[in-house]
Amino acid sequence: MATYISKDGVCKPAIEKVALIDKNGEPYIYEGPDRSATEYLKQVGEDHIGVPFWEDPEIIDRAHERRKTVEEFCKTSIYTKEKREKDYQEKLKEKVLHKAPERKPLQKSAQSGGHNTAGGGHMDGGFTASNGSAFQEAIDRSKVK
């Protein structure tokens, strides 16, 4: 999956670090721009995606609604240039490792509605989902007597 990092609304490929095998069958570590993001940008003929937020029509409209210039609006509503640059440099240091997601423990979600309309809720996590737990709870209660 392509990963990007954004600076002021302009997205460029993130840095990835992954173990690969070359044409000779030798393993090596690739560390560089995300390959799938770079390939996509080549396909569309661009070097980035997105628009700088000071050129974004929505940001311009919001600034005009508040009777400010885009620069004034950004100083008060969006974080400062120094903060944006610091965040961007931190994102540049991060490496995308393409790890498999961690498995979450099974948890019962909060009840919504009533037992006779929405059931007993869903079971989330553990790669399972379950409906009809209200029916099972009723059976379990009847056994307790």
Q: In a nutshell, what does this entry contain?
A:
With 145 residues, the chain is α+β, with helices and mostly antiparallel strands.
Q: Could you list some keywords that capture this structure?
A:
145 residues, alpha+beta, three-stranded antiparallel beta sheet, two-stranded antiparallel ribbon, 36% helix, flat
Description:
The chain has 145 residues and is an alpha+beta fold. The chain folds into two domains: 90 residues, no CATH class; 38 residues, no CATH class. It contains five helices and seven strands; from the N terminus they run ββββαβαααββα. The strands form three sheets. A three-stranded antiparallel β-sheet has the order 1-2-5. A two-stranded antiparallel sheet has the order 3-4. A two-stranded antiparallel sheet has the order 6-7. The protein is flat.
**Global morphology:** flat
Order of helices and strands: EEEEHEHHHEEH
Instruction: Give the class from helix and strand content and strand pairing.
Output: alpha+beta
Radius of gyration: 25 Å
Q: Can you list the strand order of the major beta sheet?
A: 1-2-5
Q: Show unreliable segments.
A: 126-131
Q: Could you tell me the strand content as a percent range?
A: 15-25%
What is the count of structural domains?
2
Largest sheet: 3 strands, antiparallel
Helix-strand blueprint:
Layout: E1 4-7, E2 10-13, E3 15-21, E4 27-33, H1 35-44, E5 49-50, H2 57-65, H3 70-77, H4 81-93, E6 107-108, E7 123-124, H5 133-144
Antiparallel strand pairs: 1-2, 2-5, 3-4, 6-7
Helix pairs in contact: 2-3
